[in-house]
Write a structure and sequence with these properties.
Two copies of one chain form a homodimer. Chain A has a single domain (15-300), classed as Farnesyl Diphosphate Synthase. Chain A contains 15 helices and two strands. In chain A, strands 1-2 form a two-stranded antiparallel sheet. Helix content of chain A is 69%, strand content 1%. At the A-B interface, helix 2, helix 6, helix 7 and helix 8 of A face helix 2, helix 4, helix 6, helix 7 and helix 8 of B.
Chain lengths: 303, 303
């Protein structure tokens, strides 16, 4: 599980190019962290790899790597964090798609994990990815910061983060939605792990307390903007664009921004959050250029 | 999430008394780590607490505390580890009991988590306990050892540990069982986390490399002995003694020691493993007395 070395990367390119470079880097690192498909128990490792290498955008890893660069760190410094947040994101998708939860057959354009490997294996593949995610963090080069990084990632993913948000989301189905209730769900279910990707990446890159706080505020705001765009795309996209079944949120009576404030106002709100997020980066200077580009990508993307 | 202070504990008492003292200590610590039931999302926190405070033996936490003492550490040093291993054990029970897995209605003498809270909430309560378990480790007083402790616990719980063993167990149902296949399942499914409880407790207590290795060997052997006893009790106990439905392993065609070598030989094998485990403790001296007593308890227990 060694991590390849990498110099601080130049930022003279757009978000799409950076996302592609981050994706290639992170996929290679993930491949090294994950046991081989030939390794016993083979079905478990196949299920984990099936869902992990299903062609996601790798936005969370890209944010972790960019946050490391924004505080003077390298790709290599944040490689374990980048892998960890993608493993956690993937485990949450596997469990969310289960029949007992959202009961989804399609994810990232392919049959969901439980459709291919069965419900039991999907539950266990999710559990194993979550466990391996924390093991990966112990390979961070800055050993003295591992405890802070583990704490950040766990809080982002736990009962006052991603899992708590999923519970609020389920409990809110078919209930009257207010802006406050939708915002609370989105902040925990989605924004927390996106913010955690930024802060854990920054810690791994050697952030000072001030840099950490700026990046934490940045992360919360773009995390919320990201989910608002997801809500919007769920109403306006085709299955081909989205890689999953659109319109399911509305159908399930889920709380969304377009539902509580209308499509146009939701777009304005997302843009406003990104502008606020960008303001948090001013003190970081030119090193934060990639984070800026990723923030703009969050509201400009089409899937 | 502060940890109460505690002096190194005297060991002049039997295993049952130590287990009771460890249980009281760990339950108080767990109560502080877990969000309150009144805390949003309330149902999630209720489900987590329902399964965590269901009256388990707390053997894994007791081993973590005793391993800390065996290397000169205190209860307080190992308190986070003790809570962590119990949260991981509990999450694994919640997920194992799901209809998609073993489909069990009764656990520790009460309806299982999903029978009370539903399948979705049980999946999420398990996920949240696993996540909180790793957060708890970041509160270990010896910060410089947190990375090693997280790695130990993650490996014990992952694809070459507890989760991997659960997969082998499911895949082995109805298949011809050999001693080698049963042993492999037991070593991963049960012994790994018991061994991890010992080694992580020892790390938290400040173990040297030699002490760590002795305690790792000790833990693997009593972990396997523990599961052999479980197999034996599953064949010889009433539901009242066991707190869960007995005979289910045989019914499901699961691989067990009594099935491959007969009841009497399985008892002899468990005792032999405990004797070998005790030999590992010689170099640790009198401080390891509690670990010795817990090892003997493993083969003498009735439930």
């Amino acid at each position: 599980m060694a991590v390849s070395s990498s110099k601080t990367e130049a930022v003279g390119h757009d978000a799409a190019a950076f996302l592609e470079r981050a994706r290639v880097f992170v996929d290679a690192e993930l491949d090294r962290f994950l046991p081989a498909e030939s390794d016993v128990p083979q079905t478990l490792h196949k299920a984990m790899r099936y869902s992990l290498f299903a062609g996601g955008k790798r936005l969370r890893p890209a944010l972790a790597l960019a946050a490391s660069e924004a505080v003077g760190g390298t790709f290599a410094d944040a490689a374990p964090v980048a892998c960890t947040v993608e493993m956690i994101h993937t485990y949450s998708l596997i469990h969310d798609d289960l029949p007992a939860m959202d009961d989804d057959d399609l994810r990232r354009g392919r049959p969901t994990c439980h459709k291919v490997f069965g419900d039991a294996m999907a539950i266990l593949a999710g559990d194993a990815l979550l466990t391996l995610a924390f093991e990966a963090l112990t390979t961070c080069a800055k050993k003295e910061r591992v405890a802070e990084i583990v704490r950040d990632v766990a809080r982002a993913s736990g009962t006052h983060g991603m899992v708590g948000g999923q519970v609020l989301d389920i409990e809110g189905e078919g209930q009257p939605a207010t802006l406050a209730s939708v915002r609370a769900i989105h902040e925990w279910k989605t924004a927390a792990l996106i913010a955690g990707s930024c802060t854990a990446g920054a810690l791994a890159g050697g952030a000072t307390q001030t840099e950490y706080e700026n990046i934490a505020n940045f992360g919360k705001k773009i995390g919320l903007a990201f989910q608002i765009l997801d809500d919007i795309l769920d109403e306006t996209s085709s299955p081909e664009q989205l890689g999953k079944t659109p319109g399911k949120d509305a159908q399930a009576g889920k709380a969304t921004y377009p539902r509580v404030m209308g499509l146009e106002k939701a777009k304005v709100e997302a843009q406003k959050l990104v502008d606020e997020a960008l303001a948090e980066l001013h003190t970081l200077g030119a090193r934060a250029q990639t984070l800026e580009r990723l923030a703009r990508f969050v509201v400009e993307r089409r899937n």
